[in-house]
Amino acid sequence: MLTWVPSDFLIRLLWLSFVSLFLLIIVIFGYLFFQKAMTIRKERKKEEWKRKIFPLVIQYLKGREKNIYRLFSPDMKWKNEIVEDVLYEIADTLQEEEYVRLHVLLKNAGIEQNILLSIQSKKPMIACRAMRRAGKFRMKHAASHIKSNLHHSSFDVWTTAIQALALLGEFDIVFQFLIRYHKEYPYFFAIRLFDMLKHASEQDLVAIKEQVPSLYPDLQGMFIDIIGYQKYDRYLPDIESFFESQYEFLRVKALKAAAQIGITIHHKQVIWFLQEGSVPEKLAALQIVRSNGSCINYELLEALAADKDWWVRLRALETLLSFGAEGIRRVKVISERHPDRFAREMAGTILEKMDRREKPQLEYFA
What we know:
Structural class: mainly alpha
Helix content: 55-70%
Oligomer: single chain
Number of strands: 0
Strand content: under 5%
Radius of gyration: 32 Å
Low-confidence stretches: 362-366
Distance between the termini: 92 Å
């Protein structure tokens, strides 16, 4: 029987292979350790620079630091990036005169030019980041660059463009885009249009007002929300026209907007909603009653204290209490004599809280 015995050459070859592999592993781990150490060192340097530069940036924006060149380094890009990050963090807290100094700093540090170039980047992540910064920094002259991204194939890019334009106050561009493409992009409304456009002025709304009846229902709702939030009473007739909308959510939005404005001329419709409306409609109509003294109907509110819905009963009693001494007197009567046991118990509970000087919950859910 033959037994195979490895030659000395093969043994040396295997040994060299093992040693080489071992050394390679050591080199790889050494490289990774070095890279980690360098990364940590860079992060520490960045943190140190940020701690140093943050108060200087604040002082400059407040007008206390005159030497702008202390804030950036033309030869060290990473330092300028940190300055940009600091400015982005505090941009929402700045006053108008501070934005003027901000724009001077952005221009001198080369940050402004980098943002404008990045807006046109083919990489969606870079373009979105640049547009967010342009919006936060109120770079009005960037609007034309951002506008070119409204028709970008990436959902993230064109929705970020809308958000940035809204931050820049370019509501006319936004509204015209929405009017033209609202039927093609119904999913657009998932990005909270109201939060972006709630600061639109009355003049801005002129661009969309005449188109409202033909718009996608979600866009109509946004229009209603903006008017209510800004309390634009001149648009009240447009709001009240939605009291008869086929969509319940638009009727509710219109009622809430009228309550925010604090005026309505359609008292009979408000009473109808209180008597025959759905629960959301009744709750919204109660907001109108509370905000508009001319809509007070004590008997109807007392009847609603026995509504089948718990929230309607509670809001009706709270609305009564908001009318001062007469309302309190009527709630006391309800707690003692109302034929509905649940109405009596709820009224009694609210009065007990008042007796204990606990403020009753009077805020409506949005």
